[in-house]
């Protein structure tokens, strides 16, 4: 019988947004797949060491010039001592040599470094997925090893169904949340802050969020104190919004 809590569906992955900003990631290989991994890593502001003999894929060569301060290249095959640097947070291999891959994987496990060996699921601590990016929005589709091509098709279908301005809307919400934290910084205010932010997101359309100017933002923040959320119309044309009472719980109740 179904209980009151969400059903556990084992066999999945733990989907996370791993923060590798300014952390060192070792990429072994300099071909097509490595080029894709390097783009993912630079999108996450990582520091990269690429180990691969010349010639490199032209895209990698290009990244070496455009991101010289973030990307180092060692032009030779992998050596076990490459893993001696204690600052290495993660290893990604994309080499056309399965024995070398397995050796690297085993060494990483000895050193407890998380590793992905492209296309070898048993040698992956984590899988890559098919990703869509629009500013601060990232969507990853995983089929948990069942069908990478299908992951790519599902991702494209999801991307087509999104509002075109969703990335901008999220960026605006990010700015608003930052400003709100400045005027309401304390931990005690957390529940009120979260409730108010949720109400803004529910009340305003994505387009309205995108259209919000700095002046609109300042004016909107003026309604945080009385715990009200005007529409963009009300904000710009001075009409009075409804206020909603805050009863101390995480939810909210309307007082009309
Ligand atoms: C999503 C994506 C991300 C990325 O890697 O960037 C990704 N593979 C992509 C493409 C792709 N890979 C393959 C094809 C050929 C068609 C086909 O075989 O279906 C295509 C299609 C194409 O190229 O369009 C071949 C393949 N891949 C794996 C195996 C081994 C196996 O299954 O045993 C084989 C068979 C090799 C063989 O048969 O010899 C394994 C993995 N590939 C994964 C990720 C992980 C699981 C993700 C998931 O299940 O969701 C996992 C487990 C490990 C990992 O590498 O992390 C990227 C799409 C990016 C995009 O377009 O958006
Ligand atoms: N996930 C995916 O989307 C996907 C797609 C195609 C292939 N693959 C797999 O990924 C792997 C790499 O594919 P690719 O298309 O990038 O291959 P590739 O042939 O383009 O590149 C391989 C690279 O590895 C380098 N290399 C080989 N041995 C090395 C070693 N010991 N140390 C350092 N570098 C070494 C080569 O110099 C070359 O730069 C293959 O095993 C392939 O099966 C994955």
Automatic annotation (TrEMBL):
Pfam families: NAD_binding_7, Sirohm_synth_C, Sirohm_synth_M
Residue intervals passing through the bilayer: none
Domain Siroheme synthase central: 134-161
GO biological process, one term: siroheme biosynthetic process
MF-aspect GO terms: ferrochelatase activity; precorrin-2 dehydrogenase activity
EC code(s) of this entry: 1.3.1.76
Residue ranges of domain Siroheme biosynthesis protein Met8 C-terminal in the record: 163-230
Highest taxon above the source species: Eukaryota
Entry keyword NAD: yes
Record's catalysed reaction(s): precorrin-2 + NAD(+) = sirohydrochlorin + NADH + 2 H(+)
Pathway where this protein functions: Porphyrin-containing compound metabolism; siroheme biosynthesis; sirohydrochlorin from precorrin-2: step 1/1
UniProt keyword annotation of Transmembrane present: no
Keyword terms, alphabetized: NAD, Oxidoreductase, Porphyrin biosynthesis
PANTHER family tied to this protein: SIROHEME BIOSYNTHESIS PROTEIN MET8 (PTHR35330)
Listed name of the protein: precorrin-2 dehydrogenase
């Amino acid at each position: 019988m179904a209980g009151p809590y969400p059903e556990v569906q084992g066999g999945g992955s733990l989907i996370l947004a791993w923060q590798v900003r300014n952390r060192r990631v070792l990429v072994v290989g300099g071909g097509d797949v490595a080029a894709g991994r390097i783009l993912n890593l630079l999108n996450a502001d990582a520091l990269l060491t690429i180990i691969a003999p010349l010639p490199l894929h032209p895209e990698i060569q290009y990244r070496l010039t455009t991101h010289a301060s973030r990307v180092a290249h060692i032009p030779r095959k992998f050596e076990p001592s490459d893993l001696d640097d204690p600052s290495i947070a993660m290893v990604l291999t994309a080499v056309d040599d399965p024995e070398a891959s397995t050796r690297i994987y085993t060494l990483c496990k000895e050193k407890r470094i998380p590793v992905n060996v492209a296309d070898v699921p048993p040698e992956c601590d984590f899988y890559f997925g098919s990703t869509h990016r629009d500013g601060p929005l990232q969507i990853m589709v995983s089929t948990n090893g069942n069908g990478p091509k299908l992951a790519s098709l599902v991702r494209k279908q999801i991307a087509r169904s999104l509002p075109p301005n969703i990335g901008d809307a999220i960026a605006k919400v990010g700015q608003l949340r930052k400003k709100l934290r400045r005027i309401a910084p304390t931990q005690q205010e957390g529940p009120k802050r979260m409730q108010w932010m949720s109400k803004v997101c529910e009340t305003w359309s994505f387009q309205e969020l995108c259209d919000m100017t700095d002046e609109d933002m300042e004016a909107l923040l003026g309604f945080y104190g009385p715990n009200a959320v005007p529409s963009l119309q009300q904000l710009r044309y001075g009409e009075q919004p409804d206020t909603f009472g805050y009863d101390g719980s995480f939810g909210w109740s309307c007082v009309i």
